[in-house]
Amino acid sequence: MSTTARLIFLALASLAVFVAAVCIGPTQLLDLPRLFDLLRFGASTPELERASLVFWELRLPRVLLAAAAGANLALGGLLLQAIFRNPLAEPYLLGLSSGGALGAVIALAAGATVVTWPALAGSLVIAAIVLLICRRRIAADLPSLLLVGVALGALAQAFTTAIILRFDPGALRSILFWLMGSFAGRGWTEVGMLVPAALIGGAIVFLLHRPLDLLALGGESAHHLGVRVSFVQTAGIALAAVLAAVTVAACGTIGFVGLMAPHLARRLVGAPHGVSVPGSIMVGAILTVGADLAARTVLAGTELPVGVVTGAFGCVFFLALLHRKN
Predict the structure, then answer these.
(1) pLDDT score for 140
(2) What is the domain-level CATH number for residue 192?
(3) Which residues does 154 contact at the CB level (< 8 Å), separation at least 6?
């Protein structure tokens, strides 16, 4: 099968998962026949009017948000795996999720009801500190940057735990639900935040596909072939940090998608970044939309955090990948 055919297959698979996520849910007001009637005739009857409310206010923004979150995490993972030349790299290794959680918890402790912007600020502060500490050694000592990110993430997590212990026990459930990643209760505001980030980030990463391919040969070889290695590495890490930070701010922590999506995309469409970038975007979207669908339906009457579902699959994938690498 040609690469183009595989990309088309991925696009059709994405569409199928999106339609399933829109039509399947705890309420029976919207199913596939009603969705077709709604798209054809609009809200022309009371029944279709109720289906329209479910579609526009609940299902569609949730699916778009999940798809954009998966695309952002996949792009971040693809960038870091190419820059670090390490198949185990993924966005949250830089401590971004812990920084976002700390910002959100501080805002909640201060009495705020909206944590999106404080969480974004927390993630970006951690990213800025990591880049500032390693700014002169990014090209020469990439592992140090990862270690700094892990250390700062552990520090932020310690502060987060200390603050959470001061909360009223009744509020702990909602806080933990947010920290473990969820699309519940999100709407068009978060969609307007994540979808543009995914579109702009995807375009930038695609424009960098040739330098990223050359980085696979090593920094010195890429430099001799005309790549501004330090600039590409710094810009790529900063972009991965922003994409992950925006996602954490809108949805909480959704682990392992940034690790799994690039690997699956390379196996499906090939390793060159000209094809693995769109492939990773679609695979990341499929993973998060599918995980959200499972989180909503696997236990009747109960919704799981999306991070629980992705963590369960991601742990097995990570161990298998580590075994294969060794």
Answers:
(1) 45
(2) 1.10.3470.10
(3) 95, 98
> 100: closest CA among 253, 219, 212?
253
- Half-sphere exposure at residue 150, Cβ-oriented, CA atoms within 13 angstroms: 8
CA dist., res. 260 & res. 298, Å (int): 22
**For the chain, which ranges sit under pLDDT 70?**
134-142, 170-171, 174, 325-326
Report d(CA 214, CA 280) in Å as an integer: 19
- In which domain, by residue range, is 295 found? 3-325
CA Rg value for the chain: 20
**Would you state the structure tokens that stand for residue 268, as one six-digit string?**
């499906």
- By C-alpha distance, which of 255, 283, 258, 292 is closest to 20? 292
Can you tell me which residue has the tokens 């424009």?
207
- The letter for the amino acid at 141 is D
How many structural domains compose the chain? 1
User: What secondary structure letter does DSSP report for 299?
Assistant: B
Residue type, 100: G
Q: What does pTM read for this prediction?
A: 0.90
Q: Tell me which residue has tokens 């705020």.
A: 112
Give the Cα separation of 278 and 11 in Å (integer): 10
Give the pLDDT score at 32: 82
Quickly tell me which residue has 């600039």 as its tokens.
Answer: 231
